[in-house]
Amino acid sequence: MIAKDSTSHVLIVEGKTDLRVLPYLMEKNGVAWPDDNRPVRIKDVNGITSCTKAQITVYFKEPGVKFFGIILDADKDANAAWDTFRGWFKDSFSDIPAQAPAEGFISSTTWDGIRVGAWIMPDNMSDGMLETFLKLLVPDEQQDLWSFAEKSCTEAKSLYNAPFKHVHHDKASIHTFLAWQDEPGRQLHEAFLKPALDPKSPASQPFVKWFRDLFQV
Question: Quick count: other Cβ atoms within 10 Å of Cβ 179?
Fold first, then answer.
């Protein structure tokens, strides 16, 4: 079977982890995602904030694009991530606000027939990244284990100088948490298959709604 992606629905993401995780998350929330007719073409650019406006415009103006979304990690500054997005699109979309909407941004107008949207991981307001969003999907019955995973990473850093960057604490914690599942060492997208994470958690639903509203899926 030859994989086939939509040409009209395009989503730009930070990296390959997002590319793998998001289809599983959306499929678990009712969006069919067959390999032979994927509803959204997801492209990773290995760090969006390093892209120039010209580079983003190339993706935005590809033939056939009608719905265009961008997901940026807030990292240490959600406002800075939003300002990056605004810098790319404020000349084309007059309704982009000064601050990221809590529910995610979807333009009320189109430019040359294209509608655009943006989401700042994890929740358009907080610092963090995809893994910060995913930690909110840990089910109630595993919250104690999650807390221990977080504590273990904090102590690994403070007591033993673990070399991961502070900004990657949530990433280290969630992979530690998954290492303690049965089977150990799942990749993030696999956590939805034998649920170590709850894709239908209330915490996931604002993002799911933004995705479905933007791409009309």
Answer: 12
Per-residue model confidence (pLDDT) at position 3: 57
What is d(CA 75, CA 69) in angstroms, rounded to the nearest whole number?
A: 19
Query: Partners of 11 in the beta sheet?
Result: 42, 69
Are 25 and 17 in contact, with CB atoms under 8 Å apart?
no
The whole-angstrom separation of Cα 83 and Cα 98 is: 8
Per the model's pLDDT, the better-predicted residue between 6 and 214 turns out to be 214
Residues 6+ apart with CB under 8 A from 169: 150, 153, 154, 157
Alpha helices in the chain, H assignment, sequence order: 16-28, 53-60, 78-89, 130-135, 143-160, 169-179, 205-215
Question: What per-residue string of b and e applies to 150-169 under the rule 16 or more CB within 10 Å gives b?
Answer: bebbeeebeeeeeeeeeeeb
CA-based R_g, the chain, Å: 18
pTM of the model: 0.94
Question: Is-contact 45 12, C-beta < 8 A?
Answer: yes
Residue 18's SS3 state is helix
